[in-house]
Specification:
There is one protein chain. With about 190 residues, this protein is an alpha/beta fold. It has 7 helices and 8 strands; from the N terminus they run E-H-E-H-H-H-E-H-E-H-E-E-E-E-H. It starts with a strand and ends with a helix. It binds flavin mononucleotide. Flavin mononucleotide (FMN) binds near residues 17 and 118.
Length: about 190
């Protein structure tokens, strides 16, 4: 992708997916607000080479495009369905294949979906440490939605949409700071 970009990556591997729909909603919101090119991927888009890959070089061309877009993104929105109290195994495996420095300093908005409220802290206890490992700039507001927040696969809960808007505002602050720093350095 060219231009400043926002990329969504969702850990679902079946469709339709509430998680993918939610990640894409947030991606489109940020993209239209900041005039960024945008793209949302999920594990299904990465394709079948992911499961067998031991190293990034084992991925096929289709998967390499997803990796390249995720690594090059100016802003990343990640999300995963909660499986057994955590992100899906293939979501983690995708990030396991990246170089440890690949996401350093990147603004990352954390989201997850789950069947109920019980695992709402998956965003704090599972996703945040993973992106902490990468030294990414995980935003303070992470967003978790449950099945009941969706109607016909679309996130409708006012409360969750409000929380997502709060995270989107944090992106705006970060992007303004980054562009201010860039102008000051020129
Ligand atoms: C194998 C499996 C494990 C799951 N484990 C959990 C869980 O531990 N906690 C939870 O809240 N929901 C759990 N769920 C429910 C999903 O997280 C939830 O329905 C999610 O929103 C589905 O997202 P999707 O539509 O993107 O696939 C599980 C679902 C599956 C299929």
């Amino acid at each position: 992708m060219s231009n400043p970009s926002i990329v969504g990556f969702s850990g679902n591997f079946s469709r339709p997916s509430k998680t993918r729909a939610f990640v894409d909603l947030v991606v489109q919101n940020i993209a239209s607000r900041h005039h960024l090119s945008h793209r949302t991927y999920d594990v299904e888009d990465v394709g079948s080479s992911l499961g067998a890959a031991k190293w990034q070089r084992d991925l096929d061309a289709q998967a390499q495009i997803v990796v390249a877009d995720v690594v090059a993104a100016d802003v990343l929105v990640v999300g995963s369905p909660t499986y057994k109290g955590s992100y899906t195994g293939l979501f983690k495996h995708f990030f396991d294949l990246l170089d440890p420095t690949a996401l350093r300093g990147k603004p990352v908005l954390l989201t997850a979906t789950g069947g109920g409220e019980r695992h709402a802290l998956v965003v704090e206890h599972q996703l945040r440490p993973l992106f902490g490992f990468f030294e990414a700039f995980a935003l303070p507001t992470a967003v978790y939605a449950t099945d009941k927040d969706f109607t016909d696969g679309v996130l409708r809960s006012e409360l969750i949409l409000k929380r997502a808007a709060q995270a989107v505002d944090e992106i705006a602050v970060l992007l303004a700071t980054k562009s201010g720093l860039r102008i000051a350095a020129e």
